[in-house]
Amino acid sequence: MRQRVAVVTGASRGIGKQFCVDLAKAGYDVVCAARSTEEHASKLPGTIDQTAALVRAQGREAMVAPLDVRDEAACAALAERVYGEWGRCDLLVNNAAIAPPLPALQDSTRRWRLAVEVNLNGSFYLTYYFAPRMPQGDGRVVNISSGAAVAPEFGRPSYTATKLALEGMTRGLAIEQKGVVAHNVIRLDLAVWSEGFADTLPAADAFPFEHPIIMSDALLWLARQPISHTGQIHTISELRKQGVVRAQTHHKYNAF
User: Fold this and answer.
1) Residues 159-185, mean pLDDT to the nearest whole number
2) Residue 16 belongs to a domain with what CATH number?
């Protein structure tokens, strides 16, 4: 029988890549899903092919899954592929996200829709097609949110709105699937390093970021909780106080 299977979106870099590697270390076979592939690379570093190679280096199987989460048909097709080829999905991690940087009323409405489609709709599509087929009483969906959900002063209204909506969706689905699939949120409330920051932030090489491994600490802890642990929003700061997330992991950009 195949080992546990995890599906991770936004898997080409940063937190998503770290999730994939650490899930593999924990014994999961991993579906690495994102838009950036060797054949169709983005401007930022990292591809799902590279992440898949890191998963295989841990002795686990990796599925390279090119995916635009805005495309409902593609999300449905991925579910069919995973269940068809691997027969199961135990853990879905909705990590893909976008935060348009311009003030909302100065930006295009197209970019507002983009944030809604990626941050909220994409997570729902994947949950819709994966969660009902997860092992009864043993499936888990983890959605990645941000402190921006409760801090409008973050300055990116589309990101704040969609992350807050994602948290509400999680709580609602937790009630719908109580006792069947656990739905929870990890709310990132610390600055975590990812490839590409050097291109988007001034003096990024001098700015202290947390290592993305703290997110894996939280994810793997959630994956071990009983199915009754559902509808919860956990912050990294809270989990650190509880000893779930390791202590100081600060690194500078150029230390990676």
Assistant:
1) 97
2) 3.40.50.720
- Tens of pLDDT, residue by residue over 80-98, are 999 999 999 999 999 999 9
Give yes or no: 159 in active site: yes
In 162-221, at which residue ranges do the beta strands (DSSP E only) sit? Answer: 181-188, 208-210
Distance CA 71, CA 83 (A): 19
Catalytic residue among 28, 129, 159, 253: 159
Cα–Cα distance between 174 and 141 in angstroms, integer?
9
Query: Is residue 256 very low, low, confident or very high in pLDDT (cuts 50, 70, 90)?
Result: very low
Pairing of strands 29-34, 250-252: unpaired
pLDDT of residue 252: 55
Residue 130, judged by CB atoms within 10 A of its CB (0-12, 13-18, 19+), counts as buried
**Domain range for 99:** 5-255
Task: For the full predicted model, state whether its pTM sits above 0.85.
Answer: yes
* Number of structural domains the chain divides into: 1
